Amino acid sequence: MVDRFTPRDQKDVAAAVEWALAGGKTLEIVGGGSKREIGRAAQWDLTLDLSGLSGVTLYEPEELVLSAKAGTPLAEIEELVASRDQELAFEPMDYGPVLGRSMGRGTLGGALATNLSGPRRIKAGAARDHFLGVSAVSGRAEVFKSGGRVVKNVTGYDLCKLLAGSWGTLAAMTEVTIKVLPRAPAEESLLVLGLDDRNAVAAMAAAVGSSSDVSGAAHLPANIAARMLGAAAAGSAITAFRLEGVPPSIAQRKAMLERLLEPDGVMLTIGEAGSRALWQAVRDATAFAATDGAGRPLWRVSTAPTLGPQVAAEIAAEVEADLFYDWAGGLIWIALPPLEDAGAALVRGAVRSAGGHATLVRAPASVRAAIDVFEPQPEALAALTRRVKESFDPKRILGPGRMYAGV
Amino acid sequence: MPVTMPAPDAGLVSRRDEIVAGLRAIVPGEGVIASEPEMRPYESDGLTAYRQLPMVVVLPSTTDQAAQVLRYCHERGIKVVPRGAGTSLSGGALPLADGVLLGMAKFNRILDIDFDNRAVVAQPGVTNLGITEAVEHAGFYYAPDPSSQIACTIGGNVAENSGGVHCLKYGMTANNLLGLEMVLISGDIIRLGGKHLDSDGYDLLGLMTGSEGLLGVITEITVRILKRPQTARAVLIGFASSEAAGDCVAKIIGAGIIPGGMEMMDGPAIRATEEFVHAGYPLDVEALLIVELDGPQAEVDHLLERVSAIAQGCGAANLRVSNSEQERLTFWAGRKAAFPAVGRISPDYYCMDGTIPRGKLPLVLARMREMSASYGLRVANVFHAGDGNLHPLILYDANTPGELERAEAFGADILKLCVEVGGVLTGEHGVGVEKRDLMPEMFNEIDLAQQQRVKCAFDDQGLLNPGKVFPTLHRCAELGRMHVRGGRLPFPDIPRF
Ligand SMILES: Cc1cc2nc3c(=O)[nH]c(=O)nc-3n(C[C@H](O)[C@H](O)[C@H](O)COP(=O)(O)OP(=O)(O)OC[C@H]3O[C@@H](n4cnc5c(N)ncnc54)[C@H](O)[C@@H]3O)c2cc1C
What we know:
The structure holds two protein chains of two kinds. Chain A has helices spanning about 10-25, 75-80, 95-100, 110-115, 120-125, 160-165, 195-210, 220-230, 245-260, 270-285, 310-315, 345-355, 365-370, 380-390; strands at about 5, 25-30, 45-50, 55-60, 65-70, 85, 130-140, 145, 170-180, 180, 185-195, 215-220, 240-245, 265-270, 300-305, 320-325, 330-335, 355-360. By secondary structure, chain A is α+β, with helices and mostly antiparallel strands. Chain A folds into three domains: about 1-185 and about 375-405, Uridine Diphospho-n-acetylenolpyruvylglucosamine Reductase, domain 3 (2-Layer Sandwich); about 185-285, Alpha-Beta Plaits; about 285-375, Alpha-Beta Plaits (2-Layer Sandwich). A five-stranded antiparallel sheet of chain A has the order 4-5-9-7-8. By secondary structure, chain B is α+β, with helices and mostly antiparallel strands. Helix content of chain B is about 35%, strand content about 20%. Chain B has helices spanning about 10-15, 15-25, 35-40, 65-75, 130-135, 155-160, 165-170, 175, 205-210, 240-255, 265-275, 295-315, 325-335, 340-345, 360-375, 405-420, 440, 445-460, 475-480, and strands spanning about 30-35, 55-60, 80-85, 100-105, 110-115, 120, 140, 175-185, 190-195, 215-225, 225, 230-240, 260-265, 285-295, 320, 350, 380-385, 390-395. In chain B, helix 11 crosses helix 14 (about 340-345) and helix 15 packs antiparallel against helix 16. The longest helix of chain B has 18 residues, at about 405-420. Chains A and B meet through strand 1, helix 1, strand 8, helix 6 and strand 10 of A and strand 9, helix 9, helix 10, helix 12 and helix 18 of B. The complex binds flavin-adenine dinucleotide. Flavin-adenine dinucleotide binds next to strand 3, helix 6 and strand 10 of chain B. Flavin-adenine dinucleotide binds near residues 86, 92, 147, 152 and 162 of chain B.
């Protein structure tokens, strides 16, 4: 039994999809396989492994663009652009720690297909905001392209946006073009100690609403702060603000922030190395690494920043929840005890009243087979989602059921 | 060659009175406009070479009315063209003789200003500048700033994914949009996003941005607002050649500096604007850069020094740094008035909007000069230099027989050239009717069919804004057909195990 295709080029990919189409087989598209356990636990006939499509095909630092085959390891790309003092500004998180895998297994195609981002999301956007062009094979086994290789383009529908965050259910991307940006020459973080969730979110709103141009704002309650920073947290909750830029700018903005946050309490500054480590830990939610707490159900909630504490309080009133906030309060990572529905009823209820969406990032396969992993959609939107799926993949052979049943 | 629109359906046109009455039952009073003189203002948008009176104009004032109008049209196979302020430069809002023109002007309220979440919820007919004006008392602004911002609507901005001079650093509309409410042609009301980040499910919010009124009618919009940077200063740099100016732009970005704005003008544009607004532009240079740095004072000063050093290294002929807010605004006044300034030296002008990889600028400008000579038409260039978005303005006189056609042919050649050097047909103005027939320069039939299948997912009968964006209209049933070949693996040598 053939259970895995490892195509070498786009032609192979099209041939594999065509074969699957003819035989009525379903395909799971994987790059490095680093996020395979995210999504509904459905069964697919075969794996279409795109890791063989690898290599940067164009990199023009002065044009701010990079093209690569979809299976190119993200680590390779990040290293290449760093050599020219550039970066992927969307700061793609690495799901390795929370899924109990080694780090650095993600591919560029995978980062785009799952619309990764990180703490800098509040300033620089997510993968979708940096996705300029694509060549892909649809579920009709047709090779199509969208977008281009320039940073500004509105020619035709932006199908890149649709493919970003489609989790391999619309098309197999074979080559992609992204925007790259200069990396800040320096960074520092300012920490405020001892705030409760509400005061922390108010402080974060003040900071991101000021001209101090913070590129990260996270709040770590005391237990999480201890886990992430150890003794340095001194047993307190920590509200962290990241400043990136040229040194004279950082100094001035730090002074601005200190004045703004002064009434909030004790502050301390951490330098470059500590700051980098802190924000990587926030980005990858290492406080909830799979090794810790034996893989409790883990939720990722996006809501209006000021409503973050309300959502958290509603959940924490019912069960013992461990959580922290990123995106100035708008992103909440929540680990729950091993409830039968992974806490879905509770989390979804809290998110519904605030607005936003919740994704069950980690749970046993049996749970992920039984409940919605992504936010359920109202009927008109769900019907539109099905029609969009069918416009790319009418026979539903690409990862059917991974995002929603029947899609 | 002028673009032709789909032939009107005589059957529908003959039922006009009945349709007008049906629409009046949904939108009472002055919300339905059916007399010719009153419909006249709607016959074209910013692409004035194309004009067409609609069958009827409808101006709903609530989402519910908009939904009923769309459902009414869907049930009867009536085409609908959405319209904001009608400033589109690509003919996106051009009416159809057998279609309803759905004007969103009455959706003109700001619904919610939420400084803590840095979000504004507005109806689509609010002007782009209206959003900034609503929040500037608290030091906030909405970043995308098309030059048409006093007139264009935020709904039109979403439909076109509009940009402005600050979008290299702050993004286009798509990057500043948080949520929307829209009505499909079926009358279904859909809400996407909100004050939170990222959509759940497919990124339909991203897809809607730049969809040119072909997928749904936008009835509410949530955008991100930003705090004004503490300071902004601009530097005006003249060069003897556009090659040197282009080189300077590349070196600034290569040095890791992303300015708040970086605009270029060529000789003819500089002279036309200087004569018009007296911004103090040097007249003895062939290219002028305006580079604006914004942020905290210390950062701006630091970067200005570096930009000035880079410019000197590139052989700048002259260089002036703004020393007051007044002076900075004067620097910009010229650039912002570039279109009307060119309008003064020529009876008509035709504004193009291609994007190119910036490195190809010298080549493209040289080829444009050759074309200008062979077409016998002058061209002035303004250029969003940071992101490679060109705005060549072709000067012509519509009263001289054949000149409009020549200007259009010249424009098409410029856009083909943009694609040839690795660029695209449009950076921010949209395809509309104007560039519709050039789409095959960039996309093959399969690419275009895939886009149209997405359209079918939203609009099964092709009733929303037909005749725009796609050069050939296909029925959804035809697009959906699939020819599955044999059950064999056509390439049996794909590695597998
Ligand atoms: C002098 C001048 C300068 C300009 N400068 C710039 C610039 O710097 N940058 C830039 O990007 N553009 C610029 N433009 C182009 C234009 O202003 C933008 O495209 C603008 O976003 C159009 O907005 P509008 O409200 O006028 O839309 P309209 O012209 O009315 O419509 C544009 C398109 O949007 C659709 N549409 C409008 N409202 C809705 C809605 N509510 N729901 C669904 N679809 C809708 C229409 O069907 C049409 O396809 C300029 C235009 C002019 C005349």
